[in-house]
Amino acid sequence: MKTCENCHNVNNDSSYFCHNCGSLLGFNGEYKDVYSLSEFKIARILDNLRSNVPHTKILLDDTVDLYTRKIEKCRALLNLPEMHADRNLVGKMNNFLELCRKQEFQIAFVGTIKTGKSTLINALLGSNYASMAVTPETAALTKFRSSPRDYVRVTFYSQKEWDKLWASRTSGADKFMQEYNELGAEEKKADWIGHREEYKEFARDKDVREELKRWSSSQSAEHYFVKEIEVGISTLPKSIPENVVFVDTPGLSDPVAYRSEITKGYISRANAVFVCVDAQKIQLEEMQTISSVFAFSSHDKNKVYIIATHYDTLNDPKKDWAKQKAYLEKQFVGPAFFDTREQAQSHIKPSAAYIYNLCRDFAGLEKEQKKPLQRFAISLDLDLDSLRESLPDMVRESGIDEIAEVINKQLASNYRELLLKDIKRAYGDIMVSLKRLGEERCADEKSVISATDASIEELENKLEKHKKDFEKIRNDSGQLKKFVKIIQTETDKRIEYVVENLEKLAKK
Fold first, then answer.
1. For residue 320, what is the enclosing H or E element?
2. Quick count: other Cβ atoms within 10 Å of Cβ 211?
3. SS3 for 98?
4. Per-residue pLDDT, 137
5. Which end of the chain is more exposed for a tag (fewer CB within 10 A), N or C?
6. 10 Å Cβ neighbour count for 463?
7. Regions of the chain short of the pLDDT cut 70
């Protein structure tokens, strides 16, 4: 162990700088000038982490509070400009901190367009809150939760978010643009982009539905600019705690890719995912939807439930569904899907939510509105002459009570334990990513040092070679001077000899 001379903190042998004050360890003044700038930076970082990282006490669990403190400091460290942090990792940290602070157990309902997500949610909520006429061009993320008060909270896109959304329109967004232009939405954009949050409380259930319709209806220009809607409902069963949230997501095949990405994000961080596919046409698109949900939920496949909607539209619901379920069980058991056949059997459910809602509202139905009930009764061989008496049988066959039981007994009643499990898993995932980042940065620095060492060695070799060349040149120069001197001496002798002979000739 290494003891810091500055603050006397005990550090690991592998440490170069003190974890408490940032001082250089174990060099006794040697190389102090070289490391003084790094020492100053580390001391500043440690001081900022101790004094400038805000923290809100997490009451859910002391361990989670400790996790939160650590992630807050790690995020602050990664956000330093010199860190050049991976934004995906920072995003994971943001999601983790949001999960710990809000402590919401989110049940996401996902699927392609017109698969009955909203109808299923209405059946589970006990009233038609979610719009069942939402098209792929008008989808907005909507949360439903139990609350002592009935309220609707609406948040809007910022300018930056809207710019990203607008740029993400795909080639299939023609209808989106047609309706956007017909409603004159462009003229109202400035009123709502960046608009402050709208919040209203209501005394009547009907008023909640009307307010929700205002922000989600395809006939309203404002709905294009809505980022998220949250609905508090006072009449939900007591078995659903306030922390349990139903999330109605935009379609996975939304022609505006930005909204599809929101759904994908919810799939990955939701505590449970109910993926809705049409029981009447489980084909390539439906199979791809289910596969993508598993891909985004790879860390916990047990949280995925496959809901085959529109079960009542099958020619022979019981017989046809038995075949469909057997097919789904066979397709979605394996390394990337459910681990066992038993798990698949318990996580694949049929749903006739529209029938369930009609049964619930039977007393106020017109004659024409009862026809779907009559068709379903015929498919189940029930007595048409006593349709009212057949309602309990149709409710049971709709599958909604079974889905509600899963939510109440397996999810809502255990939401705290499941939430803690997800928090700990997310924390472990971030720690692994941070370790990998540290190892990569360490490898990069070692590579730089190795390259520097190699460069120094190369320079030293060149210098040595130059020294040898210089010595050789100096030796050669000395020898050359001697040789020149010898030649000069010999030349002088010859000149002297020639001059003497010329003088003798001149005398003759």
1. helix 317-331
2. 19
3. helix
4. 39
5. C
6. 10
7. 16, 22, 26-41, 44, 47-52, 132-139, 298, 449, 451-457, 459, 483, 492, 497-499, 501-508
- d(CA 135, CA 218) in angstroms, rounded, equals 8
Q: Quick: pLDDT tens for 320-374.
A: 999 999 999 999 999 889 999 999 999 999 999 999 999 999 999 999 999 999 9
In terms of phi and psi (left: phi > 0; alpha: psi -120 to 50; beta: otherwise), the region of 106 is: beta
Taking the C-alpha atoms of residue 175 and residue 172, their distance in angstroms, rounded to an integer, is 8
Strands 198-202 and 150-156 turn out to be: antiparallel
E strand intervals along 163-233: 198-202, 226-233
348, 329 Cβ separation under 8 angstroms: yes
What CA–CA distance (Å, rounded) separates 183 from 220?
7
- What CA–CA distance (Å, rounded) separates 257 from 255? 6
Query: What distance in Å separates the CA atoms of residue 321 and residue 393, rounded to the nearest whole number?
Result: 17
CA distance 225 to 493: 109
Cβ(42)–Cβ(11) below 8 Å: no
Cα separation, 48 vs 221, whole angstroms:
46
pTM score of the predicted model: 0.75
The closest alpha carbon to 146, from 228, 237, 212, belongs to 237
Q: Shortest CA distance to 246 belongs to which of 106, 104, 410?
A: 106
CA 278, CA 258: separation in Å to the nearest integer? 24
Tell me the C-alpha distance between 316 and 115, whole Å. 19
Three-state SS at 275: strand
pLDDT at 477: 75
E-state strands within 15-55: none
**Stretch (H or E) spanning 493:** helix 415-507
94-138 per-position pLDDT tens digit: 989 988 888 889 999 998 778 888 899 999 999 888 876 545 434
Only one residue has tokens 């990664």, namely 78
Name every residue whose Cβ is closer than 8 Å to that of residue 476 and which is 6 or more positions away in sequence.
none
Q: Which of 333, 324, 338, 346 is nearest to 277 (CA)?
A: 324
386's tokens: 């006593």
Other CB atoms within 10 Å distance of the CB of residue 299: 12
Structure tokens at 63: 């361990």
Q: Tokens for 433?
A: 């990513």
Enclosing H/E stretch for 501: helix 415-507
The tokens for 296 are: 């985004």
Q: Which residue has the tokens 């000739």?
A: 505
Q: Where are the alpha helices (DSSP H) in 103-183?
A: 117-125, 159-167, 174-182
Closest CA to 132 of 146, 115, 144: 115
